[in-house]
Amino acid sequence: MLSVSDSPTVTLRARTDDDAEVLYHLAADLETWEERSPAMPAPLTRSAYEARLAARDGDSADRAVNFVIDADGAAVGTVGLFDFDDLARQAEVGIALIAEARGKGIGTAALAQIVEFGFLRCNLRRLHLELIASNAGALRAYEKVGFVVEGRQREHAWVRGHYEDNIVMGLLRSEWASRRA
Ligand SMILES: CC(C)(COP(=O)(O)OP(=O)(O)OC[C@H]1O[C@@H](n2cnc3c(N)ncnc32)[C@H](O)[C@@H]1OP(=O)(O)O)[C@@H](O)C(=O)NCCC(=O)NCCS
């Protein structure tokens, strides 16, 4: 099991072959499936995961920005931007950390970096995301980097035996710039 220090240096970088094991286990983790994905939970084989990555890497039309989250030199998760809207200059944010890396400020640090990347490097003017209402850690991490709740889809998600609200959050570049000033 990977040990992660209590205040690691967090950077975003490209995926390498050495990250494959950690990232596969994160993608296949059924414990946090509903937190990470609106798709129906199902076992994910290594070969299906690798085929998905290969298809994504080889798809020149896929405009997603996918980073590995690195803590003190080890891959501990992924963060990225997807569903780019070139006309409205907005995109969606996604993030997931392995269990050993949660609750140490890594998610907040990675989100701050992807938000800056989205606004300053991709010239986006709005970012948005969704989460299930019980995901208190995610809600707090998103609020800490400036996202605000924009809406609530009542009983939108089926989560391990019950319905849950889905929360929609957004952050404008102007708001983010004001916070930084
Ligand atoms: C959600 C996630 C990215 C948050 O990253 P993290 O590194 O664990 O969060 P941080 O350590 O930066 O904590 C951010 C804030 O949330 C709080 N927090 C963290 N986990 C919490 C929990 N389970 N319940 C309540 N608050 C929590 C922290 O105390 C901190 O707030 P504070 O600074 O005011 O004390 C991470 O936990 C994760 O990947 N979870 C599994 C996948 C997932 O849920 N992805 C998000 C999909 S929408």
From TrEMBL:
Task: Tell me the PROSITE patterns matching this sequence.
Answer: GNAT
Q: Where is the N-acetyltransferase domain?
A: 10-174
> Domain of life here?
Bacteria
InterPro entries given in the database record:
Acyl_CoA_acyltransferase, GNAT_dom
Name of the protein:
GNAT family protein
Q: Native species of this protein?
A: Gryllotalpicola daejeonensis
